Amino acid sequence: MNNSLKGSVPTDREVILGILNNSEDILNKLYKAYYAMVLQFILNNNGDEDDAKDVYQEGIIILYNKIKTGNFELSSKLKTYIYSVCRRIWLKKLSLNSKKTGSITDYEDVFAVEEDVENHEEKDASFMKMQSALNHLGEPCKTIIQDFYIHNLSMQDICEKFGYTNADNAKTQKYKCLQRLKKIFFQP
User: Fold this and answer.
1) Using only C-alpha atoms, what is the Rg of the chain?
2) Contact 27, 19 (CB under 8 A)
3) Distance separating alpha carbons of residues 23 and 135, to the nearest angstrom
4) Segments making up each domain of the chain, as ranges
5) Three-state DSSP class for 59?
6) Nearest Cα to 77, choosing from 145, 9, 5?
7) Cα–Cα distance between 58 and 66 in angstroms, integer?
8) Of 79, 85, 28, whose CA–CA distance to 56 is shortest?
9) Residue 108 CA, distance from chain mean position
C-alpha cells in the first residue's frame, strides 16, 4: 500500500554501497534525486534543459568513477558534492562558450571539486585520443586490441577468430599491434 519508498531519495550511504555493488536501482534513484536542483541552477544561469541533462550526467559519471576507484571520502552531503561538481562543469562550459558568466545564482552550499572535474576531463580527453588512435590503427589490429582489452577474449579465441595457426602467433600479432598503437597514441 505504501509506495512512498519507491521514489524516495536514497541515503548517501545507500548510494555509495549501491554504486560499489553495481545497483542499477540505486543509480536510477540517484539520477532522479538531485536532477531538479541542477536543472534549476542551470536554467537560472543561461542554460536550458538539454544543458542540465548533459551536465548532470557528467556529474553523476564523475561521482560514479570516484566511488569506483575507492578514493571517495564524503566530507559533505552527497547532494552538495553533486551540486558542486555540476556547478563547476557548467561554469567551465559557460566560460568556454563565453556566455555571460556575470552573477551566478546559487542555492546550495558549494564544495571544492576542481580536481575531480579536471581528472574526469583528462581521462575523457585520453579516451578520445585512444579512440582516435584505434581508428587510425586499421584492421586486423583494431579488432584484435578491442577483442582482447575491451571484450576480454582469450588469445585462443582471437587465434580462432583470425585464423592464426596457434595462440602464440596471435599473441605476437597483438604485441605488434600494441606497439603500433603506442606509436600513434604518443605521437605529438
Assistant:
1) 22
2) yes
3) 33
4) 12-121, 138-186
5) helix
6) 9
7) 12
8) 85
9) 24
Please state the length of the chain.
188
Q: Which fold has domain 12-121?
A: Rna Polymerase Sigma Factor; Chain: A (1.10.1740)
Evaluate whether 85 touches 108 at the Cβ level (below 8 Å): no
d(CA 93, CA 46): 11
Note the Cα 103 to chain centre separation in Å.
29
156 neighbors 167 (Cβ within 8 angstroms): yes
| Contact by Cβ (8 Å): 156, 185 | no
pTM: 0.52
What SS3 class is residue 178? helix
Query: For 94-120, how does the pLDDT look when each residue is reduced to its tens digit (9 = 90+)?
Result: 877 654 445 555 455 555 556 666 666
pLDDT greater than 90 at residue 53: yes
